[in-house]
Amino acid sequence: KTGLPLWLLGLGVDRLRADMSRLLALLFHQGVLDEQFLQLQQLQDESCPNFVSEVVNIYFHESEKLLRNLRGLLSDREFSDYKKMGMHLNQFMGSSSSIGAKRVRNVCVAFRAASEQNNRAGCLRALELLEHEYCYLKNKLHEFFQIEQQRVLAAVVRYPIQN
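^ Histidine-containing phosphotransfer protein, sequence as received from the core. Prediction below:
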């Protein structure tokens, strides 16, 4: 039988770990994430190895609904329920804060300020920016979790060693 030596496999795991670290460093440098994301990671252990990705996926699912609701409210030309919009934004801000989505949370703060001033044009601009930031976050975290999944697989796969 032929197979890759275990030490070579370890290089793949190390490279994937380094890729994850570089991507996280970039997201922190850009202000996309904050320390809350690291605190979330600290809650993950062997008993729940997918904890962070599960929490983030719940966040994405709920955020999609909130974005649809905000879009729906603003698509109505006769829109005037800024209080309802503020409730959606408070929910979005809270969930974004809980996973460390700093830039998304900051856009929600600006969006809420526009809604408190009954500024429809400002709300439309803020919604566009919110969707942009949310998509960027979602794509980057998806990339991060894919690398993490590859790292976990590379760590558990054992190739036969030549005798």
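Confidence is low (pLDDT under 50) at residues 158-163.
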